[in-house]
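Pilot study result, target chain (344 residues):
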Amino acid sequence: MKSANITLKDIARVAGVSTATASLALAGDSRVNIKTKQLVEDVAQRLKYVPNEIGRSLRAKKAETIALIFPNTPHNAFTHPYFVSLLEGISEVLVQHNFHLLVSTSRSEIDESAAYDKILRNRRADGIILWPASIKDRNIVKIIESDFPVVYLGKWHHDEIITVERDEFGGAYMATEHLLKLGHKRIVHITGPLEYQVSVDRLDGYKQALQDHRVLYDPSLVIEKDYTMESGRSAIVKLREDKVSYDAVFAGNDMMAIGAIKQLQKCGISVPGDIAVVGCDNIDMAAILDPALTTIYQPMQQIGVIAAEKLIALLTNQEVGEVQTVVPTRLIVRDSCGANKEIS
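Predicted structure:
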């Protein structure tokens, strides 16, 4: 392995200590005993480790602040109803540990890069909780692999990265299977942008449910949109224009499901009499909609708590526990699917 490719995690693995301990040892922190410090330094010297300057300078000064970063996305995170639940979960933990919260959003990848640079180089935070980004986002890879303390709120392709994710595949599978068990065969899936892992996972769950129930996958029933209410409405308009026949809709989030229901009703189509609809997220509006929306519950407050606890543990040299945590989802059955109880 080339020295340029050696990371703090490699040092920690060879020395037989946690990444947090290795970081503290190389920073000369008094909380690490002399023997462990010497061991880590010897391993770093032998492997010709070159420290990440941004991460090292940050850790040298404590800001007592956690940054919650929302990368460049096609929709503003603050407009989504479940943002408040996530924020409540994170804040609950940070208050207990006397940490402040810094929230950062950006409109473009260039703005995003500048925002990250300010947070890192100006030592504005001790660690980062990172909202899922586009698969194409180069800034995210740089942040996650910078040796800076990060908890990522999604799936990541390296096992050593600390993550907290929703069971997107399982939730989509449940929603689709529920509609199949109600007798529907032509199920439309309105996805979010497929450059996001969450959208890919939900599409995969939809496909797997169809396959397990021996229903042929039809690409004409899949429409890619952007998680807004307006895009749910426009999806129904497109299906009508293309003369696509269907008997149910599984929308990738509740906002699109609500937009779809409103457009169906505008066209004189009964929900659930003619078309059954299921959403995903269980936002507050779902319960008061007419008809009330069947949906997949996403435990956003719990996710916020778990993510914050992991990051605090990392920063205070405690055991993080489970590196990758997948939080289960569940089906909430209401009126929009045409069933008044869960199908087992």
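One observation from the pilot: Residues 197-212 form the longest helix (16 residues). A full batch analysis is planned for the follow-on phase.
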